């Protein structure tokens, strides 16, 4: 006869047994913020399966732009909605100032030695380099030589610009300011020149809309990064990248562990995996077209350099100086450009 | 709240009335959880928004009126408010101009055609506004459908500039917001007694006179509801405003986004948000008042 005790014991044993495979298999998860679009697609297709295979960790990706990640983590006040950030230099400094990162222990990263000097610091790891310059449609306009060309025909009437909302927009406008006598902290000359040619300019758009506007022929010259150029080219768009005569711009995209992360150990494994040769090499291939940072990964041929060492000659910017000025620049851009 | 307890004859307090008082209390208590839920979901965030706007610094540590002074002291703010409200008015005007005749067509259609029309009207709502907005880039672009057709017909020699103009934005918003105008309009017009039109005709009124003296006044509540929805939605349509309008056309939602997510100046973003809220509420209240008056006129 089956007694209540037998039934309970049986049910407990059955329940316990059903948990066993998952305990033995999954070693937990890690929640990582990721840029929407190409980054999200690439990390879902390459990083998530690789992390599951190597460390039995489930990667939960949360698509958020850099500024959204910082805003969410700030609002969460110590209980971050994800374990790892992916950030550009500007938001990275904002996050450091806001105390949003856990300090990084480089000893926990097996791939740290494979990255060029300076890519691993106490706050995070550089896992991708972005190279910014000028993109143009070779069937519509000749190749411009540099930033100054954008302000004369035939380029100016086909030019599409964005403001200071993004990293690539900000650094491009700084470089434009420099060729007209400005500096990293003085963008006035760029705004003055833009105002002169404003009625001619083909598009003043939001950063996210620019690839679409280029694809639809609304503009034929934009400032953007090599990754966007390679992605559009892969879709059959007539587009070429030009390294301006004053030099291409570069900045790093970095991964960080959030302060108060629920799965900090898994976040280390995730970051280490992204910096590793296999993942970096896979991310470099089309349709993702990332610029790798691991020294063991060969560089793709569409990049304006033959080796990672060459990137040291590219233009970099000091975001500690730029960040405090950026709000004023955005306000000024709004007022100068408003109809 | 009224109770269902009938009054006792002679005004004397009866046990039944005592029971009525208890039921009043019980009903009031029943509404409490909902009231608390409303307060926590709607009122608390709004109060927090107002609270945050009274801090001078982006770290939200120094209380003061600095952000309000900055916003109210800048003529650019008034221009942006006026442009935002004007965009709403233009979109409302365009949706009425196209939507009202469409609603009349619906009114005269057979039940089978009406079903098809309702499907066509509701279908855009099932698509993401992002998809609809990006579709407008393809339509209005330099090499888009409109310019290609006009060029091939020989009507223009140079492509028209439609994207990143207010005209292009109003055109796209008119299509995007059209279901919000049509649905309340059709809902009210469908309830009109068809005999009213016959009666109007029998009394010698022309079709135009019937339209303006019978149908339009009776459909006014639906029209006002549609105007409210289209106005509130188009003035806050951040995606369409920024993608179709670009960065040269600056409206309040763009300022809020820049200040909260790019610059992280939450107090200033709160000030702009409150300005948007007040501006939209003012126009919406005026429309509601108009709606109540028109309701009184029709039925009174």
TrEMBL record, chain A:
The keyword Signal belongs to this UniProt entry's keyword annotation: yes
Entry keyword annotation includes Phosphoprotein: no
Signal peptide location: 1-26
Keywords from the UniProt entry: Periplasm, Signal
Domain of life, source organism: Bacteria
Pfam families: SBP_bac_8 (PF13416)
Protein name stated in the entry: Extracellular solute-binding protein
Species this protein is from: Reyranella humidisoli
From TrEMBL, chain B:
Main localization, broad class: membrane
Segments crossing the lipid bilayer: 30-55, 85-107, 116-139, 167-189, 210-232, 238-256, 268-290
Keywords noted in UniProt: Cell membrane, Membrane, Transmembrane, Transmembrane helix, Transport
Family that this chain belongs to: Belongs to the binding-protein-dependent transport system permease family. CysTW subfamily.
InterPro entries in UniProt: MetI-like
Topology relative to the membrane: Multi-pass membrane protein
Protein name (record): ABC transporter permease
Domain ABC transmembrane type-1: residue ranges: 81-289
Superkingdom assignment: Bacteria
Subcellular location: Cell membrane
